[in-house]
Design brief:
By secondary structure, this protein is α+β, with helices and mostly antiparallel strands. It has helices at 2-17, 28-39, 128-137, 250-255, and strands at 43-53, 59-70, 75-83, 91-95, 98-103, 108-111, 143-153, 156-165, 172-180, 186-193, 198-210, 213-223, 228-239. β8 and β9 (172-180) form a beta hairpin. The termini are far apart. The relative contact order is 0.17.
Amino acid sequence: MKKTYIFLFILGLILGSCGIGFAAELTASEILEKVDTVMASDSKIMTQQMTLVSSSGQERTREIQLQNKRTASKDLMLVRFLSPSDVRGTGLLMDDEDTWLYLPALGRSRRIAGHAKKGSFMGSDLSYDDMEQLGMTGFSNDFVATLLRSEVLLGTETYVLALEPQDNDSDYSKLVMWVDQERFLPRKIEYVDTSGQLLKVLHNESLREVDGRWIASAMEMQNVQEGTKTLLRVSDVEFDVAISDSIFTVRSLERGL
């Protein structure tokens, strides 16, 4: 028996020296980087139905279009409201650190200051920062990740990460993210406020593959403190499309639809 142990030990050393062996476990930062890679694209045009649900259950539905583009130096995103008529033409431009909001009633755009980006995006349960992270920049630049455990969530094997914000001015003390171990998409995110209380919960559902990429066709952001929620459903999406840089300018934003 002793000889068998010695043989296995030597064999392990030989295989290791030849670069053959078991795959190393992913670190928390590697998992989060994979999440950002899966969610990112060089360019994308997506149409979504946004439904705002009040604490009393009343619903308001809006249609929005998002255009994303990643250049060598920055990430760009343009959001336009297509309907209903009271918000049609409203637009949001994100250009790295600069965010501009265009309201047709004013006829001009205004820059959103850094602290205001933590507020609600057009009455929804997502902040401007949430929109930016989920739709454009990802999480790696804003959070430090720790791997808590592996867990089965609704029949799916997931990694559970704790994300600590690098920005001391963040509205969140931490995020807890459940990451699909096969597709590396977030299936659930808990947002904890600065007092340590659960503030919001994001659920990503109805996963499907489009042009070789996995996306969540349905998303629900629930504000557990206010009793409200925002539903987003993808009606159309196209990846790697040619989008001119001129689309992502204040002049283009103010031209409206």
